[in-house]
Write a structure and sequence with these properties.
Blueprint (H helix, E strand, L loop, with lengths): L3 E2 L7 H32 L5 H26 L11 E4 L3 E5 L5 E5 L5 E5 L2 E7 L2 E6 L6 H16 L1
Antiparallel strand pairs: 1-2, 2-3, 3-4, 5-6, 6-7
Helix pairs in contact: 1-2
């Protein structure tokens, strides 16, 4: 079967920040909602108690602090490699990624632990702190995308 050559993929800083926020909301969105509800309830019942003021500030401040932290994370120097243009070639055994600077990586499908679809992208988790991001729009056609999904699903089920 012919390999699938994806169009070049380049992630922007705002897109990466949105992706991080969406992943955080998927993971802990219930907690942020609970904090906001608790803050609203405490604000409506506020009686001047200093501890209540602390709880109100914490309830409304924690989600804001997390958004600021994710924004700062997306701008870190360590993460600048995320924004490099990447080219991918997919075949039945592996994913091959290259960068214009000469970087090359081959990742067998068996290394993929799980796949998540977020914001028009496929996130292939290789380890707890490492993922490969593939844009849906980079696929040349829907048949190639379906072959890719079959390869990943087969690998993840093992």
């Amino acid at each position: 079967m012919d390999p699938i050559t994806l169009d070049p993929i380049r992630l922007t800083q705002p897109a990466y920040f949105r992706l991080l926020v969406k992943l955080q909301l998927r993971k802990s969105g219930w907690m942020y909602l609970l904090l906001l509800v608790m803050g609203g309830l405490l604000l409506s019942l506020y009686d001047g108690e200093p501890f209540h003021l602390f709880l109100i500030c914490f309830s409304f401040g924690w989600p804001v602090l997390m958004a600021i932290w994710l924004y700062a994370w997306s701008r870190r120097k360590d993460n600048q490699r995320v924004y490099e243009e990447r080219r991918f070639v997919l075949d039945e055994e592996k994913l091959i990624g290259t960068t214009p600077g000469g970087g090359r990586s081959e990742i067998p499908w068996s290394y993929v632990q799980r796949m998540v679809e977020v914001d028009g992208r496929y996130l292939l988790y290789i380890s707890a702190g490492q993922m490969v991001i593939l844009d849906k729009a980079a696929f040349p056609d829907s048949a190639g995308e379906q072959r890719f999904l079959g390869w990943v699903r087969k690998a993840v089920k093992k």
